């Protein structure tokens, strides 16, 4: 059988039928070369899960968009009614893509073909759901992408088209944690035991916590995304193996995953499945939050009423870790925001604020001031323990506000 020939992005877009429902991969799988070639697509709908701060395009300029994550670039489209936001957990988003989303086509980046197939390179998370749904598959080839040793591969005969589309990788630079983040990381790392399986997101807090684990041993990692902190743990001898859906970091990370057999890339159906997570012994899930109230409710997607993200996988991992034998779910946040002017331990979440972690799901909360164990705590114990790890200037005010709330119950 003759080899499939790659076509140019312009040729692909020119032949693209209108009226389709098209999934656009996010994170490092975003097909930038094809999107650059796209003008408006009348009658079509785009389906996406863009990552804030990474996928910076306003897809709603091309066609109406249905998303399960929100980015600043999509906010004007949300206001104009061209963006429809679905508040879905990662596991629920995967189930949505498998059927109810009714995607006709999926467009995603891949590494260069090898042995009759292509690797999904940096983003193995959601494309397998579109494969299962029977969507037409369009692989945008970038030979510079890593052909990872252990990950999802798609046979060439399952693809509708190969598009020649090198584009820049999204980069997440390393940040040196400040004093407060270092203190928070020490408290969170103390909750992890040698031999545990760790989950952590991305961002400064997660990187700081993972950095604080370098003295541990026999750890495993299971998460939706890895950053440069994971290879650093492998090199330190702390980590034995990692399972992830995507990679996001520096070019050094992308070079590393191209040859690292101890990092396995899997679909969301494996990385976020509740049954799989609950079956992992001693799973310690560490996730960030915007704020936590005195009832134990956490907000991780809204700031001052503005939707900045989505539910993501936090509830999947919190619930999975709580069901795991010996597992723990850690919610980590700095105690203040806006340069110390506001407390991120609050009396109650503002009206209309979505709850990412319910008070029935909360387990352990960590700030730079300590650890609050909430899993079996009653209402008063929760408030007392959370106030104890709030920033000192806000503790008396929080105590007074709790007294008022308690009398009104």
Task: Describe the fold and architecture.
- The chain is of the alpha/beta class and 409 residues long.
- The chain has 2 domains: 9-164, Glutaconate Coenzyme A-transferase (3-Layer(aba) Sandwich), CATH 3.40.1080.10; 179-408, Acetyl-CoA hydrolase/transferase C-terminal domain (Glutaconate Coenzyme A-transferase), CATH 3.40.1080.20.
- It contains 14 helices and 26 strands.
- It has an 8-stranded mixed sheet with strand order 15-13-11-10-16-21-25-26, sandwiched between helices.
- Helix 6 packs across helix 7 and helix 13 (379-388) runs antiparallel to helix 14.
- The longest helix is centred in the last third of the chain and has 17 residues, at 392-408.
- The radius of gyration is 22 Å and the shape is globular.
- The model has no long low-confidence stretch (mean pLDDT 95).
- Keywords: Hydrolase.
- This is Acetyl-CoA hydrolase/transferase family protein.
- Residues 249-401 form the Acetyl-CoA hydrolase/transferase C-terminal domain.
